[in-house]
Amino acid sequence: MKKNVYRTHNCNEICAVTNEKVRLAGWVDTIRNHGGIAFVDLRDHYGVTQVVFHDEDMLKNINRETVISIEGNVVERDKETINPKIKTGYVEVHVENMTILGQSLNQLPFEIDASTNTREEVRLKYRFLDLRNPKIHNNIVMRSKIISYLRAQMEELDFLEMQTPILTCSSPEGARDYLVPSRKHPGCFYALPQAPQQFKQLLMVSGFEKYFQIAPCFRDEDARIDRSPGEFYQLDFEMSFATQEDVFEVAETVLYNTFKNFSDKYVSPAPFKKIPYKESMAKYGTDKPDLRNPLLIEDLSAFFAEVDFMPFKNKPVRGIKAPGCAKMSKSFFENMLKFATDIGMKGLGYISISEDKSLKGPIVKFLSEEKQAELVKMLDLKETDTLFFISDNEKMVDRLAGQIRSDR
């Protein structure tokens, strides 16, 4: 095979002294000029190698981010210059020849390593520089590896990869469509798919029993915590002659393996916890709860049915026990009340347990000593706990309780 004219090795490959000349190519990351000798960190996709220039004239027109190709001998570094943090930190290349492949601007619009702290419009204008940021670069590499891993898993499970149309007709998927005008049919438009739902179902009824796709999805909606606006990709799959549990098993296998392989955090093994809708709404106030939040919603409707407190009379009542919350400042409770009224509640009652085990709060005076003791025992209330109350109609109370639970 003909040798590459730009490089014989990449910048993460030379880890020991060799007896032959090497060529490297990449971007000038840093320049350290020590008068008569200059040290340059040369960076490519794979890593960094320190190269040494003994002729300062070779660096006259070289700025950071200039693309160069160099040739020279690999030499062991002096002990005081060894960098054990990088793979190539024990050697350096003494440059004999250099070629400029791409000249950089004298003044960069931002520091490459700090590009994520720069205004977004500047980052987008110089996106080719922003993508050189190691964090962003590594994120894109990670994305590629994850997609490749997902594809391999699905193929191993005997799924067939398909590609569905991008230009299609509008279909109700819960968000607004992106529209593309048709040149051949004035006044008519294509819609970009919010998901390949109809196409994958068409494939199923056509006899393709196990389908998957790393599917592009386009949704014209605002960014939210649980929504990706604009364009995103998802692993989409469909199965024929399959039960719900069959589908769950595939999802659990693929998701567990993927997160286990690409994360150093604990990943719950299969089978995953399954929460019925009614239970989820009752305990968490949402059908997509964040289980990292330890707070649970308690149904106190039966308890307050026997209490003469008009705001809770003949209404569903929910309670949320917040351990240690009684220690919070007055402004915390004021902010909680403001949040409650902002989401449509008429108020936010609460009871706090003092360190002397007495109950304090605006609702305490409506509870007899027997009822106070019953509430403490029923919810296992401890010193410095606070119990927040949410009451509204049957349709709203769980949703409001879920928002209070999630906000704090």
Task: Describe this entry's structure for a reader.
The chain is of the alpha+beta class and 408 residues long. It has 3 domains: 21-102, Nucleic acid-binding proteins (OB fold (Dihydrolipoamide Acetyltransferase, E2P), Beta Barrel); 147-262, BirA Bifunctional Protein, domain 2 (2-Layer Sandwich), CATH 3.30.930.10; 278-407, Gyrase A, domain 2 (2-Layer Sandwich), CATH 3.30.1360. The chain has 10 helices and 15 strands. The protein has a 5-stranded mixed β-barrel. A hairpin with a 5-residue loop joins strand 13 (349-353) and strand 14. Helix 6 (277-284) crosses helix 10 (397-407). The longest helix has 23 residues, at 134-156. The model has no long low-confidence stretch (mean pLDDT 92).
Give the class from helix and strand content and strand pairing: alpha+beta
CATH architecture verdict of the largest domain: 2-Layer Sandwich
Low-confidence runs: none
Mean pLDDT: 92
Largest sheet: 5 strands, mixed, barrel
User: Strands of the biggest beta sheet: in what spatial order?
Assistant: 1-2-3-5-4
Number of helices: 10
| Cα gyration radius (Å) | 31 Å
- The tally of structural domains comes to 3
Helix content: 25-40%
Helix and strand element order: EEEEEHHHEEEHEEHHEHEHEEHEH
How big a fraction of the residues is strand?
15-25%
Number of beta-strand segments: 15
CATH-assigned fold name of the largest domain: Gyrase A, domain 2
CATH class bucket of the largest domain: Alpha Beta
What's the CATH superfamily of the largest domain, by name? GAD-like domain
Our measurement of the CA-to-CA distance between the termini, rounded to an integer number of angstroms, reads 64 Å
Shape: extended
